[in-house]
Amino acid sequence: MASYKVNLIGEIRTLLRDRYKEGFPIIKEIVQNADDSGATKLSFGWTSGLPTAKHPLLQRPALFFLNNGEFTRSNQQSFLLAWMIGLDKKPLLANLV
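and the corresponding structure tokens:
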């Protein structure tokens, strides 16, 4: 696989803006991702930010979600392939990974 430098924060921001416009489908996606990873726990929380963090996004208020599922190298590659191909073609990824 070719090496790509990806701004994951920017890509997630674009995905959230373009794909999840109405209702709360992002919550369904988070639950589905936890289930797909075999998670038995899914937690969420809020932070007012970490003022001393180096990355500016960590310095701001945010919601966060945590699960105890496994995130493998294959999961990472699938994420990057979905970004490169486009999520509308996600079923094609099953044959590539």
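(Above: one complete record from the training split.) The longest helix spans residues 73-85.
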